[in-house]
Amino acid sequence: MSVTKPISFMKTYFPCRTLIALAVAAVAAVNCQSQAGEPAVSTSAGDSALPAGVALGSPVGQVFKLAQAGVDPSVIQTYISNCPGAFNLQADEIIALTDAGVSSEMMSAMFAHDKTLPAPAALPVPAPASAVPVTTTEQAGLPPPAPVAGADTAPVPTAVPADLSQNEIDQTLTPYGSWVQVDGYGRCWRPSVVVYDATWQPYCDRGRWVYTDYGWYWNSDYAWGVTFHYGRWFNSPKYGWCWWPNTVWAPAWVTWRSSNAYCGWAPLPPFTAYQPGIGFVYRGNHVTVGFDFGLAANCFTFVSVGHFCEPHPRYYCVPHTQVAQIYGQTAIINNYGHHDRTIVNDGVSVTIIGNAAEHSSAVLFALKDRVDVTLEIAIGSSVQVALFVAPALVFISLIVGHPMDFIFSPFEVAAVGVSTLIVAIVIRDGRSNWLEGAQLLGAYAIMAISFFFVRGF
Asked: What are the sequence ranges of the domains in the chain?
């Protein structure tokens, strides 16, 4: 028996296998070296990008990931309709989906989908056993996320928060949007809500204005509300509203416009800074307080003065067709300051907002048949005018050379007496109705006409 062929085969086969093994080992070594020079990427990155309480393998988690990726709403709707499992939305999941930009129509579709399933199928779908456990912010040693409670209950910070690091910013924002490269601005964050709502604007929805020791503070109930106190917003032609990162805190990074009837605000653009003792700096150059930062009218949100402090200004803003007109009728207000090196945003006058809120509150309580509260507001305002405004006007009149006095004519005294008597008769039963209101308006009209025709006082 000849052994020539086996030996020849071994001589050929063994070197080939050896060369292949060496080639594979070399490729693996090169790949390991290239990966060693790059930042490590966690295999559970998708799970870490979900808010605490939302499991990666659950139907809700899948919808969340689709929203993060900016998938077309119609595709997400189709996924919801064809999903074999139940969503069983809870309050925390609804808030998380809303923060991610998922529309109310999609969440309604989830509820409708669950109703079509048999009772056993409507049980929660457990996460796969291989899923990585969700790590809470407390376990990870990270600062707690921004409050997601309603605007009426969200706490306003009593102390100035510390400046954030870039790592803290990334971990806070990643679940609710995507990072994009924008020409001229670099790496910016785009919230998912912009993908599904083209009319969305910063400082307009899911929040309200609150006056604090540091001026006007935007109290947002988005989980990513930190973006309204750090960084700047701008409207990209390609991506829509995007956030430009910065780590310096302010109660709100906005510029203001105001008139007697309306007030408006717009996000300050990137490369804008306020330096205590110097003022505003834009793209490295000092600018005056009347600088408009190149912001067009469509960057502003305008509301009537009486609705300035209402939650969700989006519901009270003027129509887009009137924005340009109101923009031209308002004046720029860049009323910033500092307190212990901390930025203070005084913005629009508190006096104007306070008077408007006082008057609107009186009307609101009157509509609720709370005459006692309405009277307290009206009397308090009248006393303020009588004891402070009127005396102040007398002294001011002397300064400007047009003296005024408190000498009332008999007709004026009679008018005050009749007014007091009518009001006392109307409110003595502690109730009000439309007829009594009409009587008061009629008495006011009669006195106005009388003052117009009566002369010599």
From this structure: 46-122, 165-352, 369-453
